[in-house]
C-alpha cells in the first residue's frame, strides 16, 4: 500500500503548488488578447469612492493625495463614507466639502453597504474604488479611464505596491505574496480576464455595479460581475497605488481569516453566475487562483500525512517520526526567533492556516460585515 500513499503525497504536492507555480506557467502558453481602445473616444467621467472607519491616522496623507488627484483631474467626483467612526475620521472628512462629498452613516453597516450607497449617489460613468489608507498616483487616473475607451473592457484593476516590506517578517512575506499575486493577475489579464480585483484600486462601469450583500467582499463581487456581462476585467500596470502592509503577525492572521471567510461566502454567492457565464478557461482560472488556495491547508496536511504514512509502512517509521519532530521544532524556532528564511516559511504556513480557518468560519455560517483597521499598518 505504501506506493499508493507516495502517489497521494505527490498529487497533494502538485495541487498545493499549482496556484503558485504551474498555474502561472500554464497562462504563459495561452494566446494573448490585445486591447482595442478607441483613441478618438472621449474619456468617460469618473467618481472616486472610498470607505473609512477610524482612519484619522491615515487621513492627512489621504486628503493630500486626493488634493493632488483633484489638481490633475479637476472634473473627478470624490465620495467618502465614514462607517460610524468613533475617532476624528468623520469630522476630518466633513471639513473638506470643497474636495469631497461625505456620505454619512447612522449605524455601522460595513464597507459593502457604504460602497453601495456611494455608487447610488455617484454621477461618473466610471466608479474608481480605493481604500482610506491607499495612496493613488495622481497621474494614474487618466490612463485608468483610457482603458474604458475599449468597449470590451468592463473593469480595470490597478497595481498595488506595498511600501514597507523591510518592516519585519510579516511585512516582507506580505510584500512577496503580493508581488506574486500581481504577476499572476497580469498573466490572467493578458489572455482574457482576471479572477477578481483587490479593493485597494480598481474601477468598473457604474451601470454594471451589482447588489452586494453586506457580509460579502464588495471588491471581488463588483469586479468579477463585469465578466458576467461578457466584458473583460483587466490589470493595468500603469495605474499604481501604494499601501502599508501589516507588520504584526496577529493582525495579519486575523485579517487573512476575515478576508477568507468573506471570500468563501462571496464564492458561494457568485458560483451560480460563474457556472452560467464563465467559459471553460475562466473556470480553470477561477479554480486555480481561488479555490485551490482556500483549501491549501488541508491539501498540504493530507500530503504530509500520506508521506509520513508511506515512510512508516516502508519500515522508515523512525525517520518519519524524526522528520515530524524536526519540522515541529523548526516551526517553533521560526515563530519565536527571527531566523532568515525559516521565519518567512513559518509566516507563510500561518497565512495558509488562517485562510482555511476563514473558510471553516464561512462553512459554519459565520459572517463579517464590519472591519477594524490593523493597528500595525500605521
Automatic annotation (TrEMBL):
Glycosyltransferase 2-like domain span: 49-209
Membrane spanning residue stretches: 6-23, 291-310, 316-338
Domain of life: Bacteria
Keywords: Glycosyltransferase, Membrane, Transferase, Transmembrane, Transmembrane helix
Record bears the keyword Nucleus: no
InterPro entries, per database record: Glyco_trans_2-like (IPR001173), Nucleotide-diphossugar_trans (IPR029044)
Entry protein name: Glycosyltransferase
Gene source species: Sphingobium algorifonticola
Amino acid at each position: 500500500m505504501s506506493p499508493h500513499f507516495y502517489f497521494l503525497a505527490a498529487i497533494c504536492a502538485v495541487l498545493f503548488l499549482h496556484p503558485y507555480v504551474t498555474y502561472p506557467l500554464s497562462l504563459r502558453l495561452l494566446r494573448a488578447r490585445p486591447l482595442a481602445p478607441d483613441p478618438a473616444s472621449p474619456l468617460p467621467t469618473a467618481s472616486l469612492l472610498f470607505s473609512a472607519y477610524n482612519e484619522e491616522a491615515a487621513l492627512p496623507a489621504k486628503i493630500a493625495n486626493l488634493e493632488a488627484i483633484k489638481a490633475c483631474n479637476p472634473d473627478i467626483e470624490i465620495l467618502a463614507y465614514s462607517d460610524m467612526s468613533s475617532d476624528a475620521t468623520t469630522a476630518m472628512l466633513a471639513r473638506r466639502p470643497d474636495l469631497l462629498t461625505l456620505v454619512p452613516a447612522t449605524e455601522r453597516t460595513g464597507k459593502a453597504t457604504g460602497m453601495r450607497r456611494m455608487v447610488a449617489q455617484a454621477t461618473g460613468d466610471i466608479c474608481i474604488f480605493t481604500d482610506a489608507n491607499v495612496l493613488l498616483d495622481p497621474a494614474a487616473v487618466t490612463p485608468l479611464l483610457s482603458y474604458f475607451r475599449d468597449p470590451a473592457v468592463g473593469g480595470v484593476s490597478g497595481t498595488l505596491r506595498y511600501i514597507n516590506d523591510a518592516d519585519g517578517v510579516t511585512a516582507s512575506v506580505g510584500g512577496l505574496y503580493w508581488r506574486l499575486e500581481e504577476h499572476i493577475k497580469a498573466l490572467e489579464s493578458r489572455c482574457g480576464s482576471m479572477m477578481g480585483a483587490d479593493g485597494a484600486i480598481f474601477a468598473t462601469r457604474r451601470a454594471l455595479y451589482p447588489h452586494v450583500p453586506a457580509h460579502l467582499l464588495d471588491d471581488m463581487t463588483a469586479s468579477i460581475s463585469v465578466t458576467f456581462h461578457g466584458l473583460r476585467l483587466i490589470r493595468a500596470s500603469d495605474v499604481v497605488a501604494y499601501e502599508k502592509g501589516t507588520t504584526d503577525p496577529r493582525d495579519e492572521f486575523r485579517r487573512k481569516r476575515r478576508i477568507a471567510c468573506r471570500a468563501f461566502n462571496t464564492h458561494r454567492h457568485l458560483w451560480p453566475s460563474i457556472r452560467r457565464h464563465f467559459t471553460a478557461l475562466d473556470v480553470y482560472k477561477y479554480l486555480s487562483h481561488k479555490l485551490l488556495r482556500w483549501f491549501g491547508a488541508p491539501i498540504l496536511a493530507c500530503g504530509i500525512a500520506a508521506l509520513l504514512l508511506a515512510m512508516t509502512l516502508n519500515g522508515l517509521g523512525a525517520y518519519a517520526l524524526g522528520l515530524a519532530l524536526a519540522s515541529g521544532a523548526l516551526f517553533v524556532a521560526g515563530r519565536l526567533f527571527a531566523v532568515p528564511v525559516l521565519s518567512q516559511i513559518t509566516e507563510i504556513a500561518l497565512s495558509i492556516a488562517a485562510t482555511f480557518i476563514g473558510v471553516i468560519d464561512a462553512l459554519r455560517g459565520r459572517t463579517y460585515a464590519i472591519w477594524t483597521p490593523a493597528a500595525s499598518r500605521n
